[in-house]
Amino acid sequence: MMLTDVKNNRKPEFEIDEMFINRWSPRSFSEKEIPTDILLSLFEAAHWAPSAFNFQPWRFIIAQTDEERKTFHSFISEFNLAWCKNAPVLSLVISKKTNDGVEFPTHSFDTGAAWGYLALQAYKSGLATHPMTGFDFQKARDVLEIPEDYEIEALIAIGYQDEKEKLPEKLQEREQPNERRALQEFTFNGKFGNK
């Protein structure tokens, strides 16, 4: 269950399902373990994401054990490690760049959709997710032995949200949902720039 009331920070311009407003990316995670069936339901949701030609380029490398998480900690930035070290699960999101030796142009786009499905299922399951790119991509590739035909997309912390007071003091004030741009700032009519 999310511990932050998002109503003061997020007001949609049009009516949408509340999960899109209530899902956000907190940094305060409880060390409470996630039951296997609940955790796997997130990846079950991800694998039903839309995919061009049904290629399904997404892959998730999951760290659940202390040893696996410590391996992941070796390539995470100091800033991110300060808060994500309590998350019971970390998952590196990668995408296969080629299909039968041919570059697959939508591998990142499709993998982003899979991440979105995972994040929404996590919210529906009472879990929090926080994606990050603050880590050493090359070190992650080396440590986890990721082949060159896979793109490293992001790292996700997954777990139960905890009280913001458990974060380092400098992060506590940031522990709230962000606002979003107005629709007119990112939607165009007919061609780029036409609002």
UniProtKB/TrEMBL annotation:
SUPFAM superfamilies: FMN-dependent nitroreductase-like
Keywords, ordered alphabetically: Oxidoreductase
GO molecular function per UniProt: oxidoreductase activity
Keyword Oxidoreductase: yes
Any matching Pfam family: Nitroreductase
InterPro entries: Nitroreductase, Nitroreductase-like
Record-given protein name: Nitroreductase family protein
Source organism per UniProt: Oceanobacillus chungangensis
